[in-house]
């Protein structure tokens, strides 16, 4: 299927701007470039309360930004991990998205600024994701959160970390999670799927960029088989929380996200899988520009309410 007309406008506009391919940049240059691109998306919407806090981590403090929407406690909570290939992205690049999700869902969103590669390679990001999730659960009362109604979620590499966090909480005896939100998640490190072949370049996220991200994140090729690095490689998917998995059709990551949803489903985990036709990677973060992005935010909010507010 061809690109959605709105997505095509973005892709064509990006193609007209002379840029250096991401894989030819240093990590810091790539981070600066993502911040510049984020600024073009405009300011985020107001939220009732925003608080920046620090949680203890395995190697220093982890910054967390807590978005509390209007309403009365106790709230459900989504612990959110930003995308960026484990190398780029931060609290600012996903600030507008977290604001939208908090307001639309009525849930507290706790956005986690985990350590980035290559300064901090695998398993640093995964360890921070787990530590931050545990800390939010332990301090739920401080933020007006109902500890029984905590979910994890993220986009792209953040979707990977959300999936890994659910495995870690299961494997390590808690905290109990009620839901997982995986937005076009990174689940495998081999880059060999059909969607990688079809959408290798020309759709914003490229295969070459993903190879660059994995090269920076992993210490050695053997780690591609580690479940906490590439969750699709896990042997056991049982006992994980219900999931909403959203994929974009014109995205190199489409197939691995859908393969992950199928593995969850085969293990008896309740799963909703939605593919957005004609969409590109990162379309939800561009919800101001893409009507399907706004539709996805509404679906996310509805799923959070349905899975977290009935407990």
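^ structure tokens above, recovered residues below v
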């Amino acid at each position: 299927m061809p690109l959605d007309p709105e997505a095509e406008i973005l892709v064509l506009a990006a193609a007209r701007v002379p840029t250096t391919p991401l894989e030819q940049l240093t990590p810091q240059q790539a981070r600066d470039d993502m911040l510049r691109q984020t600024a073009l998306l405009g300011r985020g919407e107001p939220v009732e309360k925003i608080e920046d806090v620090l949680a203890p981590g395995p190697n220093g403090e982890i910054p967390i930004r807590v978005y509390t929407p209007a309403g009365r406690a106790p709230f459900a909570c989504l612990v959110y991990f930003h995308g960026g290939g484990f190398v780029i992205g931060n609290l600012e690049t996903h600030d507008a998205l977290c604001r939208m999700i908090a307001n639309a869902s009525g849930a507290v969103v706790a956005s986690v600024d985990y350590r980035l590669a290559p300064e901090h390679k695998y398993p640093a990001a995964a360890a921070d994701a787990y530590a931050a999730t545990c800390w939010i659960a332990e301090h739920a009362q401080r933020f007006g959160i109902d500890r029984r109604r905590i979910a994890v979620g993220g986009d792209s590499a953040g979707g990977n970390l959300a999936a890994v966090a659910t495995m870690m909480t299961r494997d390590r005896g808690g905290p109990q999670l009620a839901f997982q939100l995986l937005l076009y998640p990174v689940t495998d490190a081999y880059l060999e799927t059909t969607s990688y072949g079809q959408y290798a370049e020309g759709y914003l996220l490229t295969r070459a960029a993903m190879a660059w991200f994995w090269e920076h994140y992993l210490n050695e090729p053997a780690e591609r088989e580690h479940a906490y690095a590439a969750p699709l490689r896990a042997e056991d998917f049982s006992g994980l929380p219900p999931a909403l998995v959203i994929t974009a059709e014109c995205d190199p990551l489409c197939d691995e996200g859908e393969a992950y949803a199928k593995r969850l489903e085969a293990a008896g985990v309740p799963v909703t899988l939605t593919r957005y036709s004609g969409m590109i990677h990162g379309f939800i973060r561009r919800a101001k520009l893409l009507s399907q992005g706004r539709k996805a935010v509404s679906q996310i909010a509805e799923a959070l309410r349905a899975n977290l507010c009935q407990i």
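The first helix runs from residue 5 to 16.
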